[in-house]
Design goal:
The protein has 7 helices and 9 strands, in the order H-H-E-E-E-E-E-E-H-E-E-H-H-H-H-E. The protein is α+β, with helices and mostly antiparallel strands.
Length: 211
């Protein structure tokens, strides 16, 4: 993602094509990585997402969209990969995903919308209802709603940071709870796999509000 950041800082990118940002960054890649890139222009959000990182859009206290994860099979997310020549010569089978595998979406935004981006360390450990409560307060556990609700009042930068910190802390706490029925546990059971408790992993979160 540091490669993506460098491209954006240079200003040499097309705002409506976040997938091209991923493609340019991919050419500098030395390891494997998931990628989630969002661009916003004129109240429209353009996304390119590859793997099990992702984002959600909140409006009026409700989660109105959650990006689906991309996996080859359970616990095997899509990842941008450039293998060293030595590994390529081993003639083994590898999952090699490229920028064009990214899922592209476009959303119309409203003033006050909250956009949350995060790695799988959040999604694997926090249910959507938990995330919504930390963002908005006490909301319904099944807090996904396709209806557009009243716009959220402007939130201060300090408050956005505090909510972001709370999400990261609760995700870290739940990841270490061996008795917790996590989203990862629930997905594993659907594949006939017992994986009780949280799933320790990196937690990176970005939270911002549309002005």
């Amino acid at each position: 993602m540091s490669n993506c950041a460098g491209i954006v800082k240079s200003g040499d990118f097309e705002c409506t094509r976040p997938d091209l940002i991923i493609e340019c960054a991919y050419n500098k890649l030395k390891i494997s990585s998931t990628a989630c890139v969002l661009t916003i222009t004129k109240k429209r959000l353009y996304s390119a997402n590859l793997g099990d990182s992702g984002y959600l859009i909140c409006r009026g206290g409700k989660v109105i969209f959650r990006s689906p994860e991309q996996t080859h099979y359970f616990n095997a997310p899509y990842q941008l990969t450039i293998l060293p020549e030595q590994m390529l010569n081993e003639k083994k089978s590898f999952l090699l995903d490229k920028p064009e595998c990214s899922e592209l979406r476009e959303h119309e935004l409203q003033s006050g919308d909250l956009i949350l981006m995060a790695t799988d360390g959040l999604w694997d450990n926090c249910h959507i209802g938990t995330i919504a409560r930390l963002l908005y307060g006490d909301e319904d556990e099944n807090n996904i709603n396709d209806k557009e609700e009243t716009q959220q009042p402007k939130i201060s930068q300090a408050s956005l940071q505090a909510r972001c910190n709370s999400l990261a802390l609760i995700a870290r706490h739940l990841s270490a709870d061996e008795n917790y029925i996590s989203p990862f546990t629930q997905r594993a059971l659907k594949h006939g796999i017992k994986a009780p408790g949280g799933k320790p992993d990196d937690v990176t979160i970005i939270l911002f509000q549309v002005s």
